[in-house]
Amino acid sequence: MGPILKEGKNCWRIRNASRVAFLVDGAAYFDAFARSAAFATESILIAGWDIDSRIRLFSQEERGGLPSRLREFMKEVVRRRKTLHVHILEWDFAVIYAFERELFPIFSRPWRETKKIHFHLDSKHPVGGSHHQKVVVIDDGIAFVGGVALTRQRWDTPEHARLGRSRALMSFPSCRRFLALDRIWVGPKEAIKNITVHSTKLPRRASDHLPVVAEVNTP
Fold first, then answer.
1. How far apart are the first and last CA of the chain?
2. 96 shares a domain with 57
3. Other CB atoms within 10 Å distance of the CB of residue 56
4. 31: domain range?
5. Residue 171: is its pLDDT beyond 80?
6. Which of 83, 110, 145 is the last residue of a domain?
7. 32 and 140 housed in the same domain
8. 105 and 199 part of one domain
9. Which of 31, 83, 117, 212 is the least crowded, having the fewest Cβ atoms under 10 Å away?
10. Across residues 169-175, what is the average pLDDT?
11. How many domains does the chain have?
């Protein structure tokens, strides 16, 4: 079987990274993005399924003179760097998601207060499709790719405090697909006897991540 990615066919370009790190949970990602963006000099490219200008990137009101909310943070970053421009591409979402998103971001002017931030909605996709990528590229030297978008209800820490809420929550149909169904935490790893993917019609409707089923040895 050959490689999945092919330049000019399903991707623009393939390059090797000299260093790679894995960020687990939204808190780590937001923090790493903020620290990297603060030192950008030429370009920040953000492409996402959803981008909310109101989110906080870190818990303090400001850090290093930079405000915590994404909108004010980006405005201050481009103000400090005369050569810096920010390009944001967000999915032109379906109306069913209207109550979960920042309404009409292109008209409410969160990104239109400076000519150095360029915001566009992406509607060029097949019927029923969406712009699902979550990518950030800074100065063509640092890239963030993965499953976390710069939007609300993505903040999480290794303690997973949100998993401690009451179990009286609607788990299906999956109206808010924020936590993947394909994660199981078990220790030690030898406790897992078998693990399979549950692929049927209902979980495919519930989430874009198929759930996994594990047999676990208990003491």
1. 42
2. yes
3. 16
4. 26-145
5. no
6. 145
7. yes
8. no
9. 83
10. 39
11. 2
Please give the residue that has the higher pLDDT: either 129 or 33: 33
Sequence-distant (≥ 6) Cβ neighbours of residue 193 within 8 angstroms? 214, 215, 216, 217
32 and 94 belong to one structural domain: yes
pTM given for the model = 0.69
Residues 38 and 103 both lie in one domain:
yes
Amino acid in the structure at residue 127: V
Find the CATH number of the domain harbouring 60: 3.30.870
Domain-embedded: residue 159: no
Task: Report d(CA 29, CA 40) in Å as an integer.
Answer: 17
Q: What is the pLDDT of residues 83-108, one digit of tens each?
A: 999 999 988 866 666 666 676 555 55
**Smallest Cα–Cα separation from 150: which of 116, 183, 110?**
110
Indicate if 107 and 140 belong to the same structural domain. yes
Q: Let me know: does 34 contact 144? Beta carbons within 8 Å.
A: no
Shared-domain flag, residues 179 and 100: no
- 37 with 140, same domain: the answer is yes
15 vs 33: which has the higher pLDDT: 33
Res. 170 pLDDT band, cuts 50 70 90: very low
Q: What does the pLDDT read at residue 75? A: 93
Burial 140-151 (b: 16+ CB within 10 A, else e): eebebeeebbbb
Give the strands of the sheet with 117-122, arranged side by side. 117-122, 85-91, 43-48, 135-138, 142-145
